[in-house]
Write a structure and sequence with these properties.
By secondary structure, the protein is mostly helical. It is 84% helix and 0% strand. It has one domain. The protein is built from 19 helices and no strands.
Length: 517
């Protein structure tokens, strides 16, 4: 979507930078998604369904604490961007150093939890055959190392994001992805302990990525050098912001990793394998969403800090439409053609649960993604306590609800009923919270210009995709036609229904410049 040319408060360079960053991150996601999907095929082939299911279940125990990643990352990014908007860059080194201290202390606490509760869960709660039980414990400890190395990256990536240097982020993340592909490719050449080899390889890749970020960020950004921080107010601000964000992140992890454990308890490793494959589709869409969110977040926070609410409202609308448009263009044809995509992706061993789980995950992601522009403004305001308390309390209900459904004998796919239903309810609560905390937000405008018009555009795109799906025989030809015609039709509907005349003029001129090049 475009930028309203009547909004004089946003400089052309800012618009161009956001557009450039979005394009860079989009191509990053395109490369990473293709490589990751191929890597999953290699891993599934090399490990087999049972060991792949065991790997996902064991790593799921570690990932229950991965909620600290987005919590501290968003917190540090928010404060970096905020002080840039306030033109108080001198505080950035203190924020960086304080975040390092917080990470070290929290790693000690999390490590204790892993070695006590985590080991107990693996030994007593997960369905793991005796033949791989010993390897599963070693995989668990390699996963802890991967967690630690990834956790230490946060202050460096936060500096990259706050400076809007998305090109650097794209390069390092692509390198990380290619190294993981190399590990997946090498599994076939390992005769024994493939499960251990894969887990150890991921830990080494995480270490290499950490070293890249640390080396480059220290050379580029003056704030990425450690100093002693005695200012207690910085710790209080970071921890207060992180504390309530932690609650939200824990709800998200509980929904994902907690449901992974429940699936293992009630349906065994094969259900975990299907959920693990579908999770890769989910992660691809989350990454696509983040490619848009990461481009907008620093600028939106800076505009809020500067009190430029007119420009912020414009970017809020554009961010919503970007997310809805890009994800729908990708999601609609993939949902319809999931079966043939799975066939070409995984070849053998595609189960009905893999196809169904993947489709439902995409629907869930489309709904979930719409919260991001709202959350950015709430986080920029710093008034996050009641927002996370209300919204995430709804999301936390996913685990007990899923548990009850499984106890009553419902099939494995009902895990998505609780996820999708609660996500819809939570979104309307988010809208109310935004209006309470940000008076410049117009609820009727949001419903009409974003939800209603955007929903109609997406629905029309679904109709076009359905007509194509039913009129062409199953096969590669239909897949190719769907992947071209369906996104284009969705783009046209969004262009006609969701943009103003000024925005369409901007889009036309922007596209004309591209073709002239």
């Amino acid at each position: 979507m475009g930028v309203n040319t009547d909004t004089a408060n946003i400089k052309g360079s800012h618009v161009n930078r956001i557009t450039t960053n979005t394009i860079l991150l989009f191509f990053r996601i395109l490369v990473i998604t293709i490589v990751n999907l191929y890597a999953v095929r290699l891993v599934l082939s090399g490990l087999g369904d049972e060991e792949y299911g065991v790997f996902n279940a064991v790593v799921g125990v570690v990932m229950t604490c991965s909620c600290v990643f987005p919590v501290l990352a968003v917190s540090v990014q928010r404060f970096f961007s905020y002080v840039i908007g306030k033109e108080e860059e001198r505080k950035m080194q203190e924020i960086f150093s304080a975040s390092i201290n917080i990470i070290i202390v929290s790693m000690i606490v999390i490590g204790f939890l892993f070695e006590t509760i985590g080991v107990y869960v693996i030994n007593n709660k997960l369905q793991i055959s005796e033949s791989v039980h010993g390897d599963a414990l070693l995989v668990f400890h390699f996963a802890i190392l991967t967690f630690v190395f990834s956790y230490l990256q946060i202050p460096y990536t936060a500096a990259v994001f706050s400076h809007e240097n998305m090109g650097l982020y794209a390069k390092i993340s692509c390198l990380d992805c290619l190294l993981k592909l190399l590990v997946a490719f090498a599994i076939e050449f390992v005769s024994t302990s493939r499960l251990l080899f894969y887990a150890a390889g991921l830990a080494i890749v995480a270490l290499c990525t950490l070293l890249c970020y640390a080396f480059i960020a220290r050379r580029l950004y003056s704030e990425c050098h450690y100093c002693i921080v005695r200012n207690k107010s910085i710790y209080r601000e970071l921890l207060s912001f992180s504390g309530w964000t932690m609650y939200g992140a824990f709800a998200a992890v509980g929904m994902m990793q907690g449901n992974t454990i429940l699936l293992n308890m009630y349906f065994g490793p094969l259900a975990n394998a299907a959920f693990g494959v579908a999770t890769n589709i989910y992660n691809a869409f989350i990454s696509l969403m983040n490619s848009v969110v990461l481009s907008f977040r620093p600028r939106m926070i800076q505009l809020y800090a500067a009190g430029d609410y007119k420009s912020l409202n414009m970017l809020f609308k554009v961010n919503n439409l970007f997310i809805m448009c890009l994800l729908s263009c990708a999601a609609i044809p993939i949902i319809f053609e999931m079966r043939i995509i799975m066939y070409y992706w995984l070849k053998d061993g595609v189960s009905e649960n893999m196809v169904l789980f993947s489709r439902l995950f995409i629907v869930y992601t489309l709904i979930l993604s719409m919260h991001n522009p709202i959350t950015i403004i709430i986080q920029a305001s710093g008034i996050i306590k009641y927002y996370h308390l209300l919204v995430e309390s709804i999301m936390v209900l996913s685990l007990p609800l899923t548990f009850v459904l499984f106890r009553f004998g419902m099939p494995a796919y009902t895990v998505f009923w609780s996820m999708i239903g609660l996500c819809i309810i939570a979104h309307f609560v988010r809208i109310i919270c935004l209006k309470c905390n940000y008076k410049e937000f117009s609820v009727p405008t949001y419903f009409v210009q974003v939800l209603l018009r955007g929903g109609v555009a997406v629905a029309l795109g679904v109709v076009v995709a359905y007509l194509l799906h039913t009129s062409i025989d199953f096969g590669l030809l239909r897949l190719c036609v769907m992947m071209v015609v369906s996104p284009l039709s969705t783009l046209v509907f969004v262009y006609l229904l969701c943009t103003t005349q000024d925005e369409r003029s901007y889009i036309n001129s922007f596209v004309a410049k591209i073709f002239k090049r």
